[in-house]
Every structure is written in C-alpha cells, then in structure tokens.
Amino acid sequence: MAQENSPYSRYGMGDIAPNQNMVSRAMGGITAGYADFQSINLVNPAALGQIRNTIFDIAGEIDIRNLKSNTSPQKFRSVNTLISYLQLGVPLSSAKMLKKKQFWGASFGLRPLTRVNYKIENNSRPEGLDSLNTIYEGSGGITQANFSTGIRIKNFSIGISTGYNFGSRDYSTILNFISDTVAYFKSNTSTSTRFGGAFLNTGIQYEIITKKNNVLRFGAYMNMQQNLSAKQDKVNETIAFDGNGGILTIDTISAVINQPGKVKLPATYGFGFTHATKNLLLGADLEFSNWEAYRYFGEKDFVQNSYMIRVGAQYYPAKDNTLPSKYWSFVKYRAGMYFGNDYIKIANNNRPIYAFTAGVGMPLTSLQRISYTGEIVALNAGIELGARGNKESQSLRENYMRINIGVSMNARWFVKPKYN
Fold it and tell me: What is the pLDDT of residues 82-99, one digit of tens each?
C-alpha cells in the first residue's frame, strides 16, 4: 500500500548508489579511461595523477522513483534528496617530479555505497485465519571513508584507494491480526546488524597521443573482495504502538544480542577507454561484479553476478579564438547511456537496468580568470532517466529520475608565490 523508496533494497546490501562523480554520471558513468585535471575520478584512482590544482567537490541528487506493479494498476511514488559525495583532491608533485613529467595526486572524502530504505504495508486474509496486516520496514546502508592516490609517469598512471566501509542494516516485520471477536497482540521480528572493515581498490591508465594530438586513453580498475566484521541483534517480541507510532515492547519472546559474523562483499572489475580531441570526447566502459560470492553471516541471498555497459560523450564548443563574451561556447555538454542486469534476482527472473543521461558543466568563474590562473569553479548538473525491470519482470518494476547537481572548486591552494 505504501513505500518510501525501493522494496528491492530489502535484498543483498540494498540499492547500489551511483559511485561516479557528476561529470562522469552525465556521460553514462564512464570512468575507467577518463581523467581530467578539473575533477576527481572516484572509481579509478590512477586518474589522480592528472590533478594540477586543489579540488573541492561536493554533490547531491534528487531521486524520484515510480513503482508499478505488473499484476495491478497500482503505482507508488517516492522523492528523496540525498548527498552523493564530499571529496577533496590535492596535487603532491614536487618540482623535480614535474621536470621529469611525473605527476602525483591524492584525494580523500566520504560517500554512500548502498542504501536500504523501504516501508511496505500488505493486507491479506490467510485461509482459515483472520485478516492480517503486515508491515515490512528497513533502513541502513554502507558509507565509505576513502583515501586515494595516483601517480603518472610519462604516459602510464597507477593508483590505489583504501579506507573504511561501515554501516548498518535494520529489518523488521510487524504482524497484526485484525478480528472483531479476539484481541491479538502485535508481533515484531527485527534484525539489526552493524558492520565495518577496510577496503582496497586499484587502477591503471595508459595514454597514447596520436599524430593529430588527440588523446586515446585506456584504463582498468579492480575493487577487491572485502570481508566486513559484523555484529547482529535478533529480537522476537510482542508490541503495541504508542500515540506517536513508536513501538512499545510488551514481552520479549527471544533475543540474540551481539552475534558476531562476516559480510562478504564481491569483487568488481572494469575496463574502458576514452578518445579526446580539443572539442569532443567519446568513451565506453564494461564493468562486472561477482555477486555470487556475496555472503551475509554465511548465507546467500537473492543475488547474481551483474554487468554494466556504459557509453558517453562530451562536447566543448570553444575554439582557440572564441571570445570570452560567448559564455555558452565555454559550457561542456554531456550525454550517455548505460545498460546491464540487476544484481538482485528473484524467482529466477533477470531484471534489466538501463538509463539515458545528459548534463552540462557550467563555469562559474570569469573566463578571463580561468585563462590567467587556471582556477575554475564549475557547476556540474545532469539528469538520469532510467528503469529497473520491464513488463516481463515478475512483481514490480521501477522507473526513476535522478537530478544531479555538483559544485567543483578548482584552485591553486598551497602554492608558494615567487613574488609578493
């Protein structure tokens, strides 16, 4: 009868949050072979070798979902405003490194990896029993605190990313029998899990300069399999609701507190390329995640291996002789798409995921200052129109729209001036 976000976030580790920055997300999410001195690549740390100035990048999104049943005309809608990431990148190259055409950069920040957020109410009449009202509710997800570094030596770049993944997953199922003659206690079965652990990701890129001074860049990355240490509480109880809708415990039937365990997250592999001229960039990625290795306290779930194909482009109209007064010539126009299969698999039914993306990179700094100092503040905005599932999918399918907005501040911090 109602849902706050996505019922499918009940399975696995929840809905996987987009892990690219706003520049890449507007181009279908290409990241493996993408590098830019004005933005931080959140997926392939090898691209950090391109950083020239200090970059502060913050972004958020408005997530609008429409849930539709394939067996009834019912539709449900939810709107969520979310923080996408907070990231800071700094150049670390010394003067000697710069003379040898060696570049070194690092970044650190905070971002969500997965989200669990749903509330579903179901009314039924089991055979031989009174009417039953069931409420399924869940919340939580994984958050990542990360530190990444990358170094470029001539045309080859390599990078690593590490840090700490942490979070929680809280599930509850409330049963309420409705009868005119018998008074039943409501029951609540809840599972609350807290987990955390270090991670390690790696990436490489190789750049080829063509005879026409175009740049062809190949890249690959790997997010290694991870074991999170976890503790879990399981409680079965009879309850009542207070005047504010909160839960009051009447009697605890059983309880297991601080049960230790492991949450095994799968490895992810990706590779791709970009081809860039002065005014046009084209790229493509292929990503694979081994979700069949996923375990939650030693148990499997309704998950499967997944893949994603991404393609994207960016057009920059400005020429060498374009006047600064022509602002829209200095805006970067982006578009792309992605297609793959959902890592959640229910009733042996695959569900496709696909979306079309578009966006712009709009300079907020005066064009004269950009050309003089290389510093720039840019507004990166985009939109994703996509879906999970189709008419052949059992149960529910989702259509979603994400409105993405990020601000990237590129400045020459920590640089000692030669003249006062």
Answer: 899 999 999 998 888 888
